[in-house]
Amino acid sequence: MAETGSGGSGFSGRPSRGSGSFTVHLADELEVYFNEVAHGRPVGFVASSKWKPPTDIYETDDALVVYMDIAGMTAEDFSVEFADGILTIGGERKPRREGKPHYHAMEVQVGPFERRFRLPVAVDPDSIRASYEHGFLEVRLTKLPPRLSGPQSVKVR
Predict the structure, then answer these.
(1) What is the residue extent of each domain of the chain?
(2) Is the pTM of this model over 0.85?
(3) CA 139, CA 132: separation in Å to the nearest integer?
(4) 6 Cβ contact list (under 8 Å, min separation 6)
(5) How far apart are CA 60 and CA 142, in angstroms?
(6) What is the CATH number of domain 2-96+108-142?
(7) CB contact burial 29-64 (16+ within 10 A = b; e otherwise)
(8) Could you give the 3-state DSSP secondary structure of residue 51?
(9) What distance in Å separates the CA atoms of residue 109 and residue 119, rounded to the nearest whole number?
(10) Most buried of 85, 94, 108, 141 (most Cβ within 10 A)?
């Protein structure tokens, strides 16, 4: 298990293609929806210079985990940054070079990608750990304890 990134997208599958409150760029998700539904284009084929690997985001008792399905890369191919409550994962999947192939289907996306997520819970920025194994990138951040909520009394002096 190699580790990448330090310090400072979306759930996979249909029908819940959108990323809910996690995605920073709502316009990007709307573009995906528009291309898939209105134009009948296959999932993932978006007129954009960057594509979006399918990503799950979930919580455990003590951590927030971002799990990205991104085969065909190495740990060094990723950048993972966390700043101002936004986790950014980027990189580039290079095309396989095997002469000049005659494709019958071409569904594996290549080229640069970037996913940005506003995290739904407070996390410790110093706790970020990323590992890449068996085609999956996992980014783990330790959750901070919830702040006290509700009415608070302050004595005026």
Answers:
(1) 2-96+108-142
(2) no
(3) 9
(4) 80, 128
(5) 9
(6) 2.60.40.790
(7) beebeebbeeeeeeebebeeeebbbbbbbeeeeebb
(8) strand
(9) 26
(10) 141
The least confident of 50-54, 101-105, 135-139, 142-146 is 101-105
Rounded Cα–Cα distance for residues 96 and 82 (Å): 30
Q: How far apart are the C-alpha atoms of 141 and 71, rounded to whole Å?
A: 22
Q: What is the pLDDT of residue 127?
A: 95
In the three-class reduction of DSSP (H, G, I as helix; E, B as strand; rest coil), residue 38 is classed as helix
Label residue 96 by pLDDT band (50, 70, 90): confident
Q: How far apart are CA 93 and CA 91, in angstroms?
A: 7
Long-range contacts of 58-62 (CB under 8 A, 24+ apart): 59/121, 59/143, 62/142, 62/143
CA distance 148 to 27: 34
Q: With contact defined as beta carbons under 8 Å apart, do 139 and 128 qualify?
A: yes
17-49 confidence digits (pLDDT tens): 444 444 445 666 565 555 555 545 444 443 446
